[in-house]
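Field: COMPLEX_INPUT
Field: COMPONENT_COUNT = three
Field: RESIDUE_TOTAL = 553
Field: MODE = joint
Values follow.
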Amino acid sequence: MSSGAPAASTLTQRSPGTLPFCVSLLRRQLTLAARRPIEIGNPLLFFAMVVALFPLGLGPAPDQLAGFAPGILWIIALLSNLLTSDAVFRSDFEDGSLEQLLLAPQPLFMSVLAYIGAHWLTTGLLLALVSPVFALMINLPTQAIPALVASLLLGTAVLSLVGGIGAALTVGLKRGGMLISLLILPFYMPVLIFGSAAVQNAVLGTPATPYLAIIAAMLCLAIALAPLAIAAGLRISVDA
Amino acid sequence: MWSFFHKLGSPPWLYRIAGTILRWLLPLTLVTLAVGLCWGLLFTAPDFRQGNSYRIIYIHVPAAVVALAGYYVMAIAGAVSLIWRMKMADIAMKACAPIGAALTFIALVTGAIWGKPTWGTWWVWDARITSMLILLFLYLGVVALYEAYDNKEAAGKACAVLSLVGMVNIPIIYKSVDWWYSLHQPASIKFTGDSTIDPSMLYPLLLMIGAFYAVFTCCLLMNMRAEILEREARTNWVKKLALEYRA
Amino acid sequence: MYFQSFNEALVMDGHGGYVWAAYAISLLVLSLILLAPRRRQQRFLRQMAGEQKRRQQGPTVNTEVN
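Field: COMPLEX_OUTPUT
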């Protein structure tokens, strides 16, 4: 005898808790990113090509290049992050899954952190790990490379969080374009200042830890507050 | 008292009361501005070290002070419009952005012109100047974000969020001269204790700061009135105003 | 008045160019932000009044048979 009604246990299924939900969201984002490896490679390729632009434009004189190397590397990392920030929420906005996320019972704060975490893992982290190669290409003194990697690891996390704010506010706009850059570059500037200062100090031999500490402080502030702004921005964009 | 705030939420009432305030505030502003400018420009003695170029202080400092304060006004108006959903607060926030941008621009330009004879360079990338530049970009970002949205209600909310996020910059601007060694002079005017600036220079400076606050308020009220008219174009009171204007 | 002559006020011991340039630019920007809202309001009211007048006159009917 077949029963038409579903078993009682499926009716009383509870929605997943916050942490499992966010972990699965993170895994989803990473899986989606892994399915398009070219898109992960794009910022890295951009990084490589722009690093090549500087010796071409400024002349290959090793000492001059080495002097500018910390700033160059940081600026390029910043620009790569800027290019990828726009796409964090866009595809989910377009197919409606973002709206579903807003309706979900799990707190949006944590879900947003999952999105941004996935973004950082596929851009900033890779950038930081690959940066020693490019540092050698523009003659950055080798003693500065640990500071470079550390500053990029912490700094790109801040950049991803701040970039998420810009992405959330502009995801619903049709003529977004350059607007997201205009919005988030002012917030990128302090990170750039301290990030390249950390590397500069390492080049000179003085400790870079104070600057890394300040970037870490920025990261703490960003983790605590940026998701609030991102959540608000997403609600505004979806409701608009 | 709360009825006063509720009435502020009504567009025609706000339009009328802004007009009443402007009727005496605008002339007062212009007079104070003229008096302050002449006083600072012509009637004060030159600085011992900087000579006559220090006179730029009578525009540079007031513009910078009000640009900072204006950002707070914009952010608080944005917060009020988000939390209490007051349309008028939304209009106030939108009106603040271009004024703040203009004042920041004045502060940066006069600062650069002042820097040339004093420090020998038009620009230096120290903490305060850089963060003032960031402030200009923040203001312009708010203007750009507002224009990008088609739905004006969503535009106001988005700009409110952006202004609030940008508020982290303001304490940095204010305290940066204390935290970092730089060419920029630390604060001479203190609210507690004696100021390190001579009284004969302090009074015109305070007058000019007051004048710039008045300029900000006038521009804010005028912008709000224009914005209210445009938004309420379909209502009867605006149509009546238009007919009276013609007459 | 601190300066003895008009020429002295103009030159200011060599700093005159800077001071007057700074003041001029600032006054220009200030007058722009003070006048712009007024112009905007007047333009809007003028436009509205024109619309009202046209609406009152009613649609003009072309009675020519062509």
